[in-house]
Write a structure and sequence with these properties.
Layout (H helix, E strand, L loop, with lengths): L6 E7 L19 H10 L7 E5 L2 H9 L4 E3 L7 H9 L7 E4 L9 H13 L5 E7 L3 H5 L5 E6 L13 E7 L22 E10 H7 L6 H6 L3 H6 L4 E5 L10 H13 L3
Parallel strand pairs: 1-2, 1-4, 2-3, 5-9
Antiparallel strand pairs: 4-8, 5-8, 6-7, 7-9
Helix pairs in contact: 3-6
């Protein structure tokens, strides 16, 4: 039985970036970074389309130049969620909105389809995201790697064919859960003990519009993690697990490594 819910991808895009200026327009591969992400998003099968929520005409023009859809949003949006909400308010018949970060050029279509599927098959959930196992101590201790604590979702509304889902308990930049007595074999345990949160989200349309208006919360401010606002306001976040990890482009070294991978792949 196929879901009748309509899903749509929105890529929030702003020109300014602290560690890598104008990164979405970098084009050493022959394509701007935002185009790589747009084309990656198009590989998903469940969503009906993709748009870029741009904060300036320069980004919008680049997106239109490669045949993409761009919607100009206010430069004063405080976050990517606010930027997406501005676009969603104008969208018509759409039930699920997928937030794909503009600096995720290697995101798989399967990951997008999975996060959409979580909401399609768990009717009581308002939001979903993904996580992947952490297998290195360096990654576990890195505050730039956001960790997520989870428990089985146990949703009463899930169907028999639903993807396995967990319920997010907390997100942190710290190494959680903290092992009182460390052993290296904890990193290879099955099932895994440690999970990295992947910055890919799916929201029900009504919840996204509500989320953009919710006030910032103490833990969100302390850890600088927007998803904590959802938990502190007592909404549930479903989490699906994947064995791949998305690689965001945050620094010049990240971009150089992406260009090298692209060239080795014959892109």
């Amino acid at each position: 039985m196929h879901s009748t819910l309509r899903s749509y991808i929105v890529i929030p895009a702003r020109l300014a970036s602290t560690r890598l200026p104008r990164k979405l327009l970098l084009a050493e591969t022959g394509k701007p970074l935002i185009q790589h992400t747009y084309e990656a998003a198009q590989r998903a099968r469940r969503p009906t389309g993709v748009s870029v929520a741009a904060d300036c005409e320069e980004i919008a023009a680049v997106v239109r130049s490669f045949g993409g859809t761009a919607i100009l949003t206010s430069p004063n949006c405080a976050s990517g969620t606010d930027r997406i909400a501005e676009v969603v308010a104008k969208l018509g018949d759409t039930d699920i909105i997928v937030n794909v970060q503009g600096d995720e050029p290697e995101l798989s279509g399967k990951a997008i389809d999975l996060v959409v599927g979580l909401l399609e098959t768990h009717s009581d959930a308002a939001m979903a995201t993904l996580a992947t196992p952490i297998r290195s101590r360096e990654k576990l201790d890195d505050p730039a790697c956001v960790k997520v604590l989870m428990a089985p979702a146990g949703s009463k509304s899930a169907t028999a064919s639903a993807p396995v889902a967990f319920r997010a308990l907390y997100f942190s930049r710290a190494a959680v859960p903290h092992a009182r007595e460390w052993r290296d074999d904890l990193l290879v345990a099955e099932p895994p003990h440690f999970f990295q949160h992947l910055g890919l989200y799916a929201y029900r349309r009504e919840f996204l519009l509500k989320l953009a208006k919710l006030p910032r919360t103490p833990l969100e401010t302390l850890e600088n993690l927007e998803q904590l606002r959802v938990l502190e306001h007592r909404y549930e976040i479903l989490v699906g697990t994947v064995d791949e990890r998305t690689i965001s482009i945050d620094t010049p070294a990240d971009y150089a490594a992406f260009v090298e991978r692209f060239r080795r792949g014959g892109g």
